[in-house]
Structure formats: C-alpha cells, structure tokens
Amino acid sequence: LLQFDRKRDRFVRHKIGLEQDGRWRGTGSLFGADEDETGRLWICGLGGVYVYDPNNRRVDSFFSEKGQMGETYRICFDKYWNVWVNALSGIWCYLRQKGKWIQFTPRDGLPGPDFEGFLARDSHQDIWCGLQNAVVRFHPDHLVMPSPDAPVIITEALASGSSIHFPLNNSSVKQLIINPEGNYFTVDFAVL
User: Residue 65: which of 93, 28, 107, 97 has the closest Cα?
Assistant: First the structure.
C-alpha cells in the first residue's frame, strides 16, 4: 500500500500482508477495489480477492474459490453488501450472509469468454457488468429473496447405467421410464 507522506513530500510503502518474500502473492497487479460497510477494502488481483483491514494493516481473508476465480478485475457491493466480482472465469457473487460464492458463466447464458469489463451498481440497486459485446444487469433481490415460483428444469438423468439428456426448456414434457429392476437413478436439475 502506498500512502502519501506530506512531510516527506512523497509516497511511502506500507506492507499490508499481500507480499511474500517481497513479491505479491499470486504475482501481478491489483486491478479493482471497493470498501465494505466496516471500512475494509476488498481488492481484486491475479489470484482472487483480498480483504484488507486498513486499521490493523493486514489481510483478513483471501478468496480464490480453490483457484477457480483466476484473475479478478472489478468489484462492487450491492445493497445487501454482497460482493460482485468480474474475473477471467466469469462473474462471481459472494452472498455474505451465506458465506457462499456463486459463479455466472457462458453455461448460464452469458456471452464470453471476456469478462474484463466494467462493474457498477445503479440507482435502482441493480448490478451492471460490461462483457464482451454485451452489458448484463443482475437483480440482487432475486439472489437474496427466495422465489416460491422459481421454474425447475430437469437437465439429465442417470438410470440403469445410461445417461438420459432432456431438452433445456421448461415447456416440454420430461418422462423417465424405469424397468422394475432399475430401482436406482439420479436426476440433475436447475432452479432458475
């Protein structure tokens, strides 16, 4: 952390715990930061997201989702103080009350693979992300408030050792016929 020292008329370096043997952990630059309601800085870097407490001058937490995040670029908070991050691997949201990260990628319908655009909260408390040839708006209320009418789509089933794929739309009828000896099966589904 560089801080301007008026007496010296120059910037002075303070170690903040991101360094290891004089090098940045995860090596590389820090790209974006935002401050939470307690005054801690959430900082985007090559290896994930650092949570820095300026009062104690130390890193309280580091998030990488087991290395899945990769480079993280921009960060902002929604009205619930959930953390939104755009990263090389997609858009991430940290639901702080649940202590859980959610990842959004092209598998969820986002254009990709470039997620290095802007990230901002608007006056209606929605989160906007700039992506490759697209702008995406997220409604944090939909992540926090459960919907009893959320549609469910069966995507795949495994029965008698065979995988059965279903069309990815909610309007088609999905039927799984199992022989009497086929009493073991699994069903994969998505709640939208």
Answer: 93
pLDDT tens for each residue of 153-172 = 777 888 777 787 777 666 66
Cα dihedral 140→143→148→149 (10° resolution): 70
Number of Cβ within 10 Å of residue 69's Cβ equals 23
Dump pLDDT digits (tens) for 27-55: 467 888 999 999 999 999 888 898 988 88
CA distances to 44, 127, 131, 141, 150 from 81, rounded to whole Å, are 16, 12, 23, 12, 24
Distance CA(131)–CA(19), nearest Å, equals 31
Distance CA 134, CA 83 (A): 21
**Quick one: residue 8, left, alpha or beta (phi over 0 = left, psi -120 to 50 = alpha)?**
alpha
Q: Which has the closest alpha carbon to 38: 8, 15, 61?
A: 61
**Distance, first Cα to last Cα, the chain:** 42
